[in-house]
Design a protein that fits this description.
alpha+beta; 8-stranded antiparallel β-sheet; 9 helices
């Protein structure tokens, strides 16, 4: 504001200079008229006077710009204003967040506390009396299966004759002899090893003049795979693969199955009918084969399978 007051009077001072120059111009006019022919000489004076007028006039103009210059100087001294809208929005957001948090805390604090569930369960009542008795060897399947496997086989009927089997005279069957029952003995040997074969026992007899019965038990370690179950399922698959076959579930075995093949097989000039049964319990698998020159009844194979599984 001081700069404006200082520069204000300057235009007023400059204006008289301009007015003074005016009479000089008027005075020079008569001189030019009076001179007449000597106007060439007077013309320079008039031109000289005119610059004086022009000089005064610019002085007036200079004073005005001086006033204008002061105003910009006054404006540059002011700091540039910041835009307050983003700051206001940010402040409002923070304030809203804080107020919402405080309001939620107050609402939660005013509610009734929720009871937590108990950390411990109610104490179970202890049964009275002594500990249960240990299972006998006849009832404990583990003890039974770890004993002599041959004792779990059905006994040969008194009127039957012994029939040749893959087992030796002592009733045990080696893994190599078990593998001989496969169409590919080498593949069967590897498959039995993969199923964790442990041991096997068998018995066989001949009834009448033409019927032959063979029973085999196979036991597996079952540390990583259920070998007994795999062997039984393998028997189910191949027995049911023959289309002309009847099948029945063996009672008390879960998935044990007996099969009777209606179509006979011819070998060595003889016609033979066959029936077979497969089941498993624990780590022991059961396999039964019956061959005869005539058709085999359902009761024959089912009775053998049922009685053998009862011994397991």
């Amino acid at each position: 504001m001081e700069a404006s007051e200082r520069t204000g009077p300057e235009p007023e001072t400059a204006e008289p200079a301009s007015e003074t120059a005016g009479p000089e111009q008027e005075a020079s006019g008569p001189e030019q008229e009076a001179s007449g022919p000597g106007s060439d000489t007077a013309e320079p004076e008039s031109e000289t006077a005119e610059p004086g007028s022009e000089t005064a006039s610019p002085g007036h103009e200079t004073a005005s710009p001086g006033h204008e210059t002061a105003s910009p100087g006054h404006e540059t001294s002011r700091p540039v204003r910041r835009r307050r809208t983003p700051l206001l929005l940010a402040g409002a957001a923070v304030l809203g967040l804080l107020s919402g948090t405080c309001a939620g805390y107050l609402v939660q604090a005013g509610r009734e506390p929720t009871a937590l569930p108990p950390l411990s369960q109610p104490r179970l009542a202890q049964a009275g009396g002594g500990a249960p008795e240990h299972l006998s060897a006849a009832q404990d399947r583990k003890v039974k299966f770890d004993g002599d496997l041959r004792r779990l086989l059905l006994k040969k009927p008194s009127d039957a004759r012994e029939a040749p089997t893959r087992s030796g005279e002592d009733g045990w069957i080696s893994l190599a002899r078990v593998a001989e029952g496969y169409n590919d003995p080498a593949g069967g040997y590897a498959w039995q090893l993969g199923s964790e074969f442990r041991r096997s026992a068998a018995v066989g007899w001949r009834e009448g003049g033409t019927r032959t019965v063979g029973i085999q038990l196979l036991q597996y370690r079952q540390e990583e795979v259920l070998g007994a179950r795999h062997v039984a399922e393998d028997g189910y698959f191949y027995a049911a693969d023959d289309g002309d076959t009847d099948s029945w579930a063996i009672p008390g075995t879960g998935d044990g199955t007996a099969y009777v093949h209606r179509t006979p097989e011819t070998a060595y000039g003889m016609t033979m009918y066959t029936a077979e049964a497969y089941a498993w319990r624990g780590d022991v698998a059961m396999e039964i084969w019956v061959t005869d020159t005539g058709p085999i009844r359902k009761k024959t194979i089912l009775d053998l399978a049922k009685r053998q599984m009862e011994r397991l």
